[in-house]
Amino acid sequence: MTRTFKFYLHLSPAECRQYYEGFYKSIQVVAQTGQRIQFPAEHIRSFVTANGIDGLFELELEANNKFRALHKLSN
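^ that's the sequence the OP posted. Answer follows.
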């Protein structure tokens, strides 16, 4: 059984660079349900643009809280 969490993420280009270069190893967000969720920063790399990251995302976790997928839903 998978669990999903929706959250907004906004990172400037400079913040994205720090994550991309490995300065930060994880991302912590607050889901729309109010829950705090942390996941490896490497999973945001495919969403980085020249303007950084901005949008609504959905994180999928497996039953054991293992990362399954990250999807961008909208800007």
